[in-house]
Amino acid sequence: MAAKITKDMIIADIIAIDRGLIPILMEAGMHCIGCPSSQGETLEEAGMVHGLNVDEVVEKMNEYLANK
């Protein structure tokens, strides 16, 4: 079964699952992939900082993983 992304996951852990998720994060406006905050910040926390709809980002990432 494919991994499932949730908004309470740490960004670095999401990237570790599949580096192909990076373009989805970048497209959503999260250009801080290599920033120190990504090592301890959840997707939901980063989404709040960047004013994003995290549920949409999670949905896109899970669609990507499901269609691999």
What does this protein structure show overall?
This protein has 68 residues and is mainly alpha-helical. It has one domain (11-66): SP0561-like. Helices cover 51% and strands 0% of the residues. It contains four helices and no strands. The chain has helices at 11-17, 22-28, 43-50, 54-66.
Strand content: under 5%
This entry's quaternary arrangement is: single chain
> From the coordinates shown, what is the CATH architecture?
Orthogonal Bundle
| Low-confidence parts | none
Terminal CA distance: 11 Å
**Which whole number gives the mean pLDDT?**
90
Q: How many beta-strand runs?
A: 0
* Total of DSSP H or I helical runs spanning 4+ residues: 4
Largest sheet: none
- What is the share of helical residues? 40-55%
CATH homologous superfamily placement: SP0561-like
Output the helix-strand order: HHHH
Question: CATH fold name, please?
Answer: SP0561-like
CATH class categorisation: Mainly Alpha
Q: How many domains make up the 3D coordinates?
A: 1
Radius of gyration: 11 Å
Shape: globular
Helix/sheet category: mainly alpha
